[in-house]
Amino acid sequence: MIRAYLRQTNVYFTMQQINHLWNIKLSKAPERQPLMNGLLDKKYCDAFRWLEGIHVRIISPKTILKFIDEELIHDNEAILKQNGQTLNSMSSGERKQAFLKYTLNQKPEALILDHLLDNLDTMARKRIADLLETQSHLSGIINIYSRDDDRLPFLTEEFTYESQELKKESLVEPVKVQTKTEIQYPLPNPLHEVSIFDNPLVSFNQVSVSYLDKCILKNISWVINKGQFWHLYGPNGSGKTTLLTMITGDNPKAYGQDIKLFGKQKGSGETIWGIKQKVGYFTTNMTFQFKRRQTVRDMIISGFFDSVGLYHIPSDQQIKLAHEWLDFIGLAHLADHPFIDLSMCHQRMIMIARAMVKHPPLLILDEASVDLDDESASLMTGLINRIAQEGETTIIYVSHRMEPGLNPTHSFELVVGDGGSEGVSSSLH
Ligand SMILES: Nc1ncnc2c1ncn2[C@@H]1O[C@H](COP(=O)(O)OP(=O)(O)OP(=O)(O)O)[C@@H](O)[C@H]1O
């Protein structure tokens, strides 16, 4: 890359016509892995040859998690919020913004963004787009995205990546979202009779949570009854994940609060294991925890044991039920494939089946459509709607964007105010 410097004014700029400012739309989610693996391993194909020998930084879910791992191992606190908070304890949206600012300070000559705008609220998207527009005068930028909303309009060249080839586009056609009807099998029956709990399944009464003396959740009251399908939403950092971890049992702040789970007061002797048996949970970061080459079948079976990987000998019935779930999601042909080699969409469907295999009374899906393309998101929407319609399971679906075609019965919005977020419940039908 050729650069020009205005030494007198102490400002430097890169000649616009020489900078590579690319939007790359993935035509399908399965294209993402080979593209990102090539870029992470610096195995550049001809189109990316210009990245050789220059200072390239990649912002992707993987590079952020790698940074957090190193932060924890080496006690390295290179990225801190003003209040001293580490990257690990920030919300997912806050992390992306903090990691971007840190990366820009490294003065990269090229910046590769892997679905950076996905999963961000409107204000955060605007802040990040402004930062990147300024950066576009200083370095090359490659913005890899799957949803049309995530295109950066100030980047000058448009590409699609399809069949491992980069194609230049004059105008990126919006992808027509099709409602897929590929789920033909009935919802599998549970292995054992599912315990019936009285209403409400979950209730929060005037629950408040603070971190570092800052109130995050303020007087939250929320009643979740059997068979309901909730959409939980609110801006980045409003406390959605904090609220969910009070249900899943991972948050010590839940103790001493008026929370009832499955008919019992929180803190009245229930074990985390007991709660985990009743809650199917999926969050995008979980996918990256599975690093061993386990088969798709074993991944689904591991849902019975809530383990990261399969370390138990499953019963014949458990294996049979895992196959029924594979039939249900239309991926029976992948049973013996290593999970980590699959596309993001297939991994996501399998993780949902894994969360459901024990037929939990409550299924929590945290940002399940993140990183998917329109078609994959539509397939996943169909799967969730089927589980909601045919099963006994109550669903909490967390997202910033409302997926077209998703049919929640209720919504719970976290509205950020000066003294913390307050909750607003609505019935949608
Ligand atoms: N252990 C912690 N220490 C300090 N602050 C924390 C901790 N955990 C969460 N927070 C703060 O609490 C707020 C709520 O975080 P949470 O992850 O619940 O938000 P969220 O609504 O899920 O956000 P996002 O949409 O970005 O994922 C954030 O400002 C976060 O930085």
Automatic annotation (TrEMBL):
<protein>
    <submittedName>
        <fullName>Molybdate transport system ATP-binding protein</fullName>
    </submittedName>
</protein>
<dbReference type="InterPro" id="IPR050095">
    <property type="entry name" value="ECF_ABC_transporter_ATP-bd"/>
</dbReference>
<dbReference type="InterPro" id="IPR003439">
    <property type="entry name" value="ABC_transporter-like_ATP-bd"/>
</dbReference>
<dbReference type="Pfam" id="PF00005">
    <property type="entry name" value="ABC_tran"/>
</dbReference>
<dbReference type="InterPro" id="IPR027417">
    <property type="entry name" value="P-loop_NTPase"/>
</dbReference>
<keyword id="KW-0067">ATP-binding</keyword>
<dbReference type="GO" id="GO:0016887">
    <property type="term" value="F:ATP hydrolysis activity"/>
</dbReference>
<feature type="domain" description="ABC transporter">
    <location>
        <begin position="202"/>
        <end position="428"/>
    </location>
</feature>
<dbReference type="GO" id="GO:0042626">
    <property type="term" value="F:ATPase-coupled transmembrane transporter activity"/>
</dbReference>
<dbReference type="GO" id="GO:0043190">
    <property type="term" value="C:ATP-binding cassette (ABC) transporter complex"/>
</dbReference>
<dbReference type="GO" id="GO:0005524">
    <property type="term" value="F:ATP binding"/>
</dbReference>
<keyword id="KW-0813">Transport</keyword>
<dbReference type="InterPro" id="IPR003593">
    <property type="entry name" value="AAA+_ATPase"/>
</dbReference>
<keyword id="KW-0547">Nucleotide-binding</keyword>
